[in-house]
Design goal:
The complex is a heterodimer of chains A (about 110) and B (about 110).
Chain A (H helix, E strand, L loop, with lengths): L3 E3 L4 E4 L4 E7 L7 E6 L6 E6 L3 E5 L2 E6 L4 E6 L8 E8 L8 E3 L3 E6 L1
Parallel strand pairs in A: 2-11
Antiparallel strand pairs in A: 1-3, 3-8, 4-5, 4-9, 6-7, 7-8, 9-10, 9-11
Chain B lengths: L3 E4 L2 E4 L5 E7 L5 E7 L5 E8 L5 E2 L10 E5 L2 E6 L8 E8 L5 E3 L3 E5 L1
Parallel strand pairs in B: 2-11
Antiparallel strand pairs in B: 1-3, 3-8, 4-5, 4-9, 5-6, 7-8, 9-10, 9-11
Classes of the chains: A mainly beta (about 110), B mainly beta (about 110).
Chain lengths: ~110, ~110
């Protein structure tokens, strides 16, 4: 069983719609959760971090965490073509005190004009 | 966040040779990480580099193949030794900031012929 799972996509949404990206993780003790955006040919860019159950909003992005269900999601409101990228979910390794992360395979988002 | 630079940005090397990749950050950080990203794949952690101690390698990666130096709190190098075409990949360094977030450098695209 993969430790961090994402649907690879592609997820295609029309411009202006809400894009919903999902991630599940296997280690119930994980405490820190991150979303990275990676444009083709570029390195990952941190866009959201979340540590507590519930929602965290930052501009058009909302991260949602449900530790009981071991589920974290990213909502992108008013999706723009510039949001087209691969979104990586990352979860901390609880047994490590170094900040080590495990990454999912990423979901490719396509926003169509 | 942190501003991270890597050198070289890309290189084409012959099999059997070695390449050293440099990672520089604009502030002092305790932890630095080295990742590999194969085309179309997610990130694979090679090792964690803590200043003042030996790097900690992940399963499947060994010091003889990927020696790492961490001489101070703003700099690290990764050497890819005795290269083969299978080492062709993007190599990324990242740093852990004081709020336990990881930020990535721009990456080094390596092609081995």
């Amino acid at each position: 069983q993969k430790e961090v799972e994402q649907n690879s996509g592609p997820l295609s949404v029309p411009e202006g719609a809400i894009a919903s990206l999902n991630c599940t993780y296997s280690d119930r003790v994980s405490q820190s959760f991150f979303w990275y955006r990676q444009y083709s040919g570029k390195s990952p860019e941190l866009i959201m971090s979340i540590y507590s159950n519930g929602d965290k909003e930052d501009g058009r992005f909302t991260a949602q965490l449900n530790k009981a269900s071991q589920y974290v999601s990213l909502l992108i409101r008013d999706s723009q073509p510039s949001d087209s990228a691969t979104y990586l979910c990352a979860v901390n390794v609880p047994t490590s005190n170094t900040g080590k992360l495990i990454f999912g395979q990423g979901t490719t988002l396509q926003v169509k004009p | 966040s942190a501003v991270i630079s890597q050198k070289p940005s890309r290189d084409i090397c012959q099999r059997g040779t070695s390449l050293t990749i440099q990672c520089q950050v604009d502030s002092q950080v305790t932890m630095m990480f080295w990742y590999r990203q194969q085309p179309g794949q997610s990130l694979t952690l090679i090792a964690t580099a803590n200043q003042g101690s030996e790097a900690t390698y992940e399963s499947g990666f060994v010091i003889d193949k990927f020696p790492i130096s961490r001489p101070n709190l703003t700099f690290s190098t990764l050497t890819v030794s005795n290269m083969s075409p299978e080492d062709s990949s993007i190599y990324l360094c990242s740093v852990l900031t004081d709020n336990y977030e990881q930020y990535f450098g721009p990456g080094t695209r390596l092609t081995v012929t």
